[in-house]
Amino acid sequence: MSDRKTGAMITGLAVAFGGPAVLLSPADRLLGPQDRLLTKVLEQLVMWLFLAIIVAIVILWEKQSLSSMWLRPPAWSSLGWGLLLAATTIVVVMPTLGWLLRSAGIPGFEAGMAKILVFPLSLRIFAVITAGVVEDALFLGYGFTRLTLLTGTKWLAGFLTIGLVALLHSPNWGFGPALAYLIAVGLGVAFFVWRKDLLANIVAHVTVDGMGLVIVPLLSSLR
Questions:
Q1: What's the Cα-to-Cα distance from 213 to each of 25, 77, 120, 179, 196, rounded to whole Å?
Q2: Which of 27, 82, 141, 167 could form a disulfide with 137 if both were Cys (CB 3.0 to 4.6 A apart)?
């Protein structure tokens, strides 16, 4: 592997994982008060900026196509497999993880959900799309694939990706959900390695988050 490509990947990994970390640091205060709607909108836009930088690195610096991030052309199979993963996560994985956290006396997702649900529906929809598209592209499409190339093993790349993603979610969600993310993200990484289809993972992520942050609260408000 050339020094140019190695440098490009290391820089890209710094953006893919380090960029979101900056939004969790005191530097995020530059965007405004945390309880302000505009601040949350700006945070979502900054995430899209990180994705734009990654795309530029892949195309202009690495001289690769986006297929190197395992992004396939849109196909019904991506939709089908993504929805299957989402259904498994919603019906089996998340209820099981929630039960395990409660049984262990560890706080679950309730506090994190409460912080998000105070914001308007439009922002939550935007956040769901951002999480599904941007996070999966940064953490899986770029992060996992480049860690695999740099380390030479999918196992180590997988463990690093799972640990980093769980760690990045812990400030907003707490210790309990971070533990749950180790399992949920592990499932997502395993699925990504199996299908090699970034779009399918994006479909699953958007569906799961959309159900929890948009559909279920909307239905509850209509009762």
A1: 24, 25, 11, 20, 27
A2: 141
Compute the distance between CA of residue 167 and CA of residue 175 in angstroms, rounded to an integer: 9
Parent domain of 171: 3-221
Asked if 137 and 201 count as a contact pair (C-beta separation under 8 A), the reply is no
How many whole angstroms separate alpha carbon 33 and alpha carbon 39?
Answer: 7
- Cβ-count burial of 17 within 10 angstroms (0-12 exposed, 13-18 middle, 19+ buried)? buried
Q: What is the pLDDT of residues 14-52, one digit of tens each?
A: 999 999 999 998 888 889 888 899 999 999 999 999 999
- Whether 181 and 189 have beta carbons less than 8 Å apart is answered as no
Phi then psi for 103, rounded to 5 degrees?
Answer: -65, -30
Helix/strand/coil for 33? coil
Distance of CA 173 to the CA centre of its chain: 13
Task: Copy the structure tokens of residue 99.
Answer: 């039960």
Domain count, the chain: 1
Residue type, 25: S
> Contact 58/69 with Cβ under 8 angstroms?
yes
Give first-to-last CA distance, the chain, whole Å: 59
Q: Are 37 and 120 in contact (CB under 8 A)?
A: yes
Q: What is the model's pTM?
A: 0.95
